[in-house]
């Protein structure tokens, strides 16, 4: 039952070229930064990464983009990452953009074992190209397929040896739903606590969904951009 591994390098063991990964986070909030660094150092390539966005140029998934380790991004936001934008516009990177709510539901559905569902978001836009449509209650909907991954890599505030996880406030974001949608889920945590100390009513991700846990080191907790009042 003890799912603790020593470090990020051990945690990502088994991730090989051309796999599909889910990586939690929203902007730079709640991203598994140690795991991403380990992936950069592993030189694994051809990855399909499912994430809300791709960090920034010098942090988060932006580091994998710099080394061209990602072949496809399934995401909802290009945002602050100029290299992401450049690779998208040049055709170097395949990008599947989703409305943010649709992306979240595709991941949640994957974890729940739901193969597909209908949503109105994106109908009549480029998002609808090649997708089945159907009318419900006088409104057109698109058929969207759920998402699963070979590995889901999430970032939590606290975790125990059984893999039970608690996320801190908005750092919950995509982490919780991704944890249930990976064949193997890796949890990078800020603090490992003794089994039995987490209040069961406060656990966000039950340990049944998690296979590996490790304590992150040298966490930067960057702010994506700072706005100051004069």
Account of the 3D structure:
There is one protein chain. This protein has six helices and eleven strands. Strand 8 and strand 9 form a beta hairpin. It has 230 residues and is α/β, with parallel strands linked by helices. The termini are far apart. Strands 1, 2, 3, 4, 8, 9, 10 and 11 form an eight-stranded mixed beta sheet that branches. The chain has one domain: Glutaconate Coenzyme A-transferase.
List keywords for this structure.
single chain; 230 residues; alpha/beta; Glutaconate Coenzyme A-transferase; 8-stranded mixed sheet; 3-stranded antiparallel sheet; 6 helices; 11 strands; 27% strand
Shape: globular
- Please report which band the strand proportion falls in: under 5%, 5-15%, 15-25%, 25-35%, 35-45% or over 45%: 25-35%
The overall pLDDT average reads 94
Which CATH-level-2 architecture? Answer: 3-Layer(aba) Sandwich
Could you describe the largest sheet, including whether it forms a barrel? 8 strands, mixed
Task: List the domain count as a whole number.
Answer: 1
The first-level CATH class is given as Alpha Beta
Question: How many runs of DSSP E, i.e. beta strands?
Answer: 11
Q: Which spans of ≥5 residues are poorly predicted at pLDDT below 50?
A: none
Helix content: 10-25%
- The oligomeric state of the chains shown is single chain
The Rg value, from CA coordinates, equals 18 Å
């Amino acid at each position: 039952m003890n799912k603790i591994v020593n470090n990020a390098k051990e945690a990502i063991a088994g991730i090989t070229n051309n796999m599909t990964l889910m990586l939690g986070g929203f902007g730079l909030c709640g991203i598994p930064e140690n795991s991403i660094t380990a992936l950069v150092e592993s030189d694994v390539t051809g990855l399909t990464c499912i994430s809300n966005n791709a960090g920034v140029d010098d942090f988060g998934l932006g580091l994998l983009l710099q080394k061209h380790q990602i072949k496809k991004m399934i995401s909802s936001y290009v945002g602050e990452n100029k290299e992401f934008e450049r690779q998208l516009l040049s055709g170097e990177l395949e990008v599947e953009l989703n409305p943010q709510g649709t992306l979240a539901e595709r991941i949640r559905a994957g974890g729940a074992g739901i193969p597909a569902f209908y949503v109105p978001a994106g109908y009549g836009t480029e998002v609808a190209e090649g997708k089945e449509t159907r009318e419900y209650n006088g409104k057109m909907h698109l058929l969207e397929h759920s998402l699963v991954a070979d590995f889901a890599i999430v970032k939590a505030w606290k975790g125990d040896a059984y893999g039970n996880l608690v996320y801190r406030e908005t750092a919950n974001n995509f982490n919780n739903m991704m944890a249930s949608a990976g064949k193997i889920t890796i949890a990078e945590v800020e603090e490992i606590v003794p089994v039995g100390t987490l209040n069961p009513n406060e656990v966000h991700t039950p340990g049944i969904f998690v296979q590996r846990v490790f304590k992150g080191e040298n966490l930067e907790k960057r702010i994506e951009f700072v706005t100051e009042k004069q």
